[in-house]
Amino acid sequence: xxxxxxxxxKLGVLGGGQLGRMLIQQAINWDISxxxxxxxxxxxxxxxANGFTQGDFNDYDTVMSFGKDKDVLTIEIEHVNTKALHxxxxxxxxxxxxxxxxxxxxxxxxxKSFYKEHGFPSSDFVLVENKSEAIRHFKKGGVVxxxxxxxxxGRGVQVLxxxxxxxxxxxxxxxxxDLVDIEKELSVIVARNKKGEVKSFPxxxxxxxxxxxxxxxxxxxxxxxxxxxxxxxxxxERLITELxxxxxxxxxxxxxxxxxxxxxxxxxxxxxxxxxxxEGNYSSQYAQHLRSxxxxxxxxxxxxxxxxxxxLLGEKGYEGPVFYEGxxxxxxxxxxxVHLYGKKMTKPYRKMGHVTVLGEGLEELRSKIDEVKKxxxxxxx
Length: 381
Ligand SMILES: Nc1ncnc2c1ncn2[C@@H]1O[C@H](COP(=O)(O)OP(=O)(O)OP(=O)(O)O)[C@@H](O)[C@H]1O
Ligand SMILES: [Mg+2]
Fold this sequence. Notes:
Bound molecules: adenosine-5'-triphosphate, magnesium ion
Shape: globular
Number of domains: 3
């Protein structure tokens, strides 16, 4: 492998969204050249990547021709053409996370089966092919139906609470999961390099906006016991090791009302629940992602200061060229860090950026986030 400091070293990224943008911000610090492939003409990476190819990362030929002159290929979204990635691996391109890992993650059915076969705690499930099978596996009290593939940001997931809701069941290959009685949603980000070195970040507490079905507020370290913190991190570390994965893995977890930790799902890339590590931790998730896929030593994941993150979503009722109301006011406050993703157009609930705040404890974090929420709004002119 060419060393990252060789002047013609090329890191290719499938996807050119906000995760890629923050990865590039770190790559610039280490003088690593990053090339992105994304279908959108105004992708967040377009103006800051060393090279930008406009094209479909789901298309076999496009991925083959984009990947063939790269030294290392990675992803910022898992919905990519993995047939091409398998072939590029065979041709000697280093693909991290490996194509087989992306295959596993793209299929929620395969993911759940992996947990079951390898003894990882996760809610019980059955695989179904269509709506009538889904209805047959309904249980009193409710179930969760998830499309096996193609879902993202909560689309492709629905709770079937009662008999009346069964009409809405997806008519597609999906899984029917037991409804977890959720106390908290947690996340652990963990990385592994080629040598097998593994490091996890402190556990993140995630709060959902039910209406938008998106994580809206999260903070770390999570308010859980030391024993649970240890259990969650060890679970994530064991998972990435058994997967044999190289790269960064976000492990979404449920803590149920009985105190059990269950794996919900995984994402083999930087994740929304790790944005706060840019300011809050010695190594950010983006630095760690680069370190893991470029065969470097992993960085120190420990917390510098407690952090909370707020997604900046497009306000309801505004659609068009974006305008950030109150940006200057928000930035006046100590420990407030605003990240705008460079998307030109807003629409209701579109992820346009995020804000990280640093503080001494949850109360301070919450009140700072509330202040930011009051003044900073994503609108259109
Ligand atoms: N078995 C379950 N029991 C209860 N709630 C669940 C269950 N599975 C999922 N949920 C709820 O639905 C949310 C979305 O589910 P999941 O993470 O599987 O979907 P997703 O489409 O990949 O979402 P995202 O991209 O936002 O992570 C979860 O964060 C959780 O709030
Ligand atoms: Mg999820």
